[in-house]
Structure formats: structure tokens, C-alpha cells
Amino acid sequence: MIDLHCHTLHSDGTDTPESLALLGESARLSALCLTDHDTLGGIPRFLAMQSQVKVRLLVGTELSCRFLGQSLHVLGLLVDPGDAVFEARLEELRGRREDRNRRMLLRLAELGCPITIEDVQAHADTPLLSRVHFAKALAARGFVRRAPEAFERLIGDDCPGFVPREELSPTEAARWIREAGGVPVVAHPGRFIGGGFRWDDAMADLQRQGLEGLEGFYGEYRASEQKYFVALAARLGMVVTGGSDYHGANKPGLRLGRGRGGLQVPDDLLDRLETQQKFGSYH
Ligand code: AMP
Ligand code: MN
Ligand code: MN
Ligand code: MN
């Protein structure tokens, strides 16, 4: 079994890169790809663990795009961690995130919930601050009882305190990832199911924009979702990947390699992904 989607405290997870590698080993995974949001910051420490574990440690990241009016996540799997152009592009994304964070603090103050960037930083072990850290700061200051309530009332996607970032187009994300030697993959497409969203058409559109794979196995999918997306990938000729989206204590009950219990990502998906990396099309 493998896991090609997980986070450390370099973005919005809680594990160190070292503890994640050891967890992959004790979960008896054969490969583990670290995919922190907008950063390869945890990668050097993660790869340094390779001499101590048998599980193959792989490099990735997760980027946010705007697609059909929604926030679509794209995984950049097997990117080259030494690619200076890609690193500069990630730096630009982190700058946009900081802008967004500043605007979100102003909005929250207008809503009667004044917190400071220091409050948010106090809940993060990384300079990359995400809404997970905002939620903890809002709870610590007593503006919500618990962090999940912050997402329900204040900073969830449809809430008054949320400010979107300037997001990439899928075309741009796919090109950046390909130019860094990686494979661009649509993350957890099942999160968009419902509300009249038609994946048959949307995925074909994303494929035309350069997306080469989709996450057919996911820590929080129902069996029916996995079946639908694996079949959709086969129809379109896209590669299938899979992962738990493990975030440590920030997503309680979600286990590395196992998801909510039923996840099993087959080893041969990685062989197929590596073939795609070598021979896949660059649109
Ligand atoms: P950001 O990248 O700063 O916009 O924060 C996005 C992160 O917040 C996601 O990766 C999730 O970990 C978390 N998140 C977003 N919406 C929710 C929600 N409704 N409940 C809990 N966590 C959420
Ligand atoms: Mn996350
Ligand atoms: Mn995601
Ligand atoms: Mn993720």
C-alpha cells in the first residue's frame, strides 16, 4: 500500500517530517509522498529520513486553483525539489497567501473578532499560516468555543470572514508542475459532488487544461465515489492516484495510509504514475 497525499507542520498538519516518515514505516507503506500546501519546506528533512526507513519517500505539493467558481486543489506529484523556477513560483503563492491573511484579519476585526497575526502565528510551527491556524486563534481568544465552529460561522468558504486568495488557473498549475518534472493531479474531486456539478464534463475540461491524473482513492471517499472516479479516469485515459490527506491532529480520526479505515491505495498506481511522469504528455 502507498499514500500519495499528506501534510506536516510545514503547512496545516501537525507531524514533523521525521515523524511522518516513521509513521509511514510503521503503517507498512511501500511509498509515501509528502504534499504540503504551497511549499516544499518539509522536503529536505523528509528525504533525510530515507536512510532510516524502507518506505520510499517521495516529493510533492498541493496547490489551490480557481475552477468553475470553486477552489480546486491540484497535487504536484514527483516534482523536482531542486527546481529553482518552481521554488520561486511557490514563493509567489506564499506571498499571495500572506496578502490574503492580512485582509482576513481586517475582515474579522470588522466582524467583531479582532485577532492579530501574532495570535495566529502562535498556533503554527511554520510561517505558512492557513485557516486551520486562524481557527485555533479565534478559539483561543474566545470568539468561538472550538476551532471547528470558526469554520462554521466565520472563516469557512461561504462565511463572512473568509477572503479568497488570488488563485491559479488549472492550466497554470499544470504547466508549473510539469515544468518542475512532476505530474499534475486533480486532488479529491469527490469534494465537489452535488450542487449540479458534473464531473464527466469538468474532468475532461481539466484534462484539456493539462491535468494528467485524478485522486481516485481518498481518505474520506465513500466506496461509490472511489468506483466512479476510478472508472472516470479509465474512460478519459488519466492516471489514478490515492492518498489519505493525513493532517495529524488537525484531522482527527484520519490515519496515514488508511484514511477513515477503509483506504487501500495499491502499489501499482505508483508504477503507472512514474510511467506517466516519464512519457506523459505535456500540453
Ligand atoms: P487556507 O489554505 O488557508 O485557505 O486553509 C484551507 C485549509 O483549511 C484546508 O486545507 C483545510 O485543512 C482547512 N479547512 C477548510 N475548510 C474547512 C472546514 N469547513 N472545516 C475544517 N477545516 C477546513
Ligand atoms: Mn490542508
Ligand atoms: Mn486539498
Ligand atoms: Mn491535502
Topology, pairings included?
Elements: E1 2-3, H1 17-26, E2 31-34, H2 43-48, E3 56-67, E4 70-77, H3 84-110, H4 117-121, H5 131-140, H6 147-155, H7 170-179, E5 183-186, H8 199-208, E6 213-218, H9 223-236, E7 239-243, H10 268-279
The protein binds adenosine monophosphate (AMP) and manganese (II) ion (MN) (3 copies).
GO molecular function, one term: 5'-3' DNA exonuclease activity
Domain Polymerase/histidinol phosphatase N-terminal: 2-67
Protein name: PHP domain-containing protein
Written account of the structure:
- This protein is 40% helix and 14% strand.
- It contains ten helices and seven strands.
- The protein has helices at residues 17-26, 43-48, 84-110, 117-121, 131-140, 147-155, 170-179, 199-208, 223-236, 268-279; strands at residues 2-3, 31-34, 56-67, 70-77, 183-186, 213-218, 239-243.
- It has a seven-stranded mixed β-sheet.
- The model has no long low-confidence stretch (mean pLDDT 96).
- Residues 12, 37, 130-132, 151, 156 line the site of adenosine monophosphate (AMP).
Keywords:
single chain, alpha/beta, TIM Barrel, DNA polymerase, domain 1, 2 domains, seven-stranded mixed β-sheet, 40% helix, globular, binds adenosine monophosphate, binds manganese (II) ion
**Total helical elements:** 10
Number of strands: 7
Helix content range of the residues, please? Answer: 25-40%
Shape: globular
Number of domains: 2
Measured distance between first and last alpha carbons = 31 Å
- Proper CATH architecture of the largest domain: Alpha-Beta Barrel
Query: How confident is the prediction overall: mean pLDDT?
Result: 96
How would a crystallographer describe the biggest sheet? 7 strands, mixed
What is the CATH superfamily classification of the largest domain? Metal-dependent hydrolases
* CATH domain topology of the largest domain: TIM Barrel
Secondary structure category: alpha/beta
Order of helices and strands: EHEHEEHHHHHEHEHEH
Strand order of the largest sheet: 1-2-3-4-5-6-7
Bound molecules: adenosine monophosphate, manganese (II) ion
CATH class of the largest domain: Alpha Beta
CA-based gyration radius? 18 Å
Q: Give the low-pLDDT segments.
A: none
What is the strand content? 5-15%
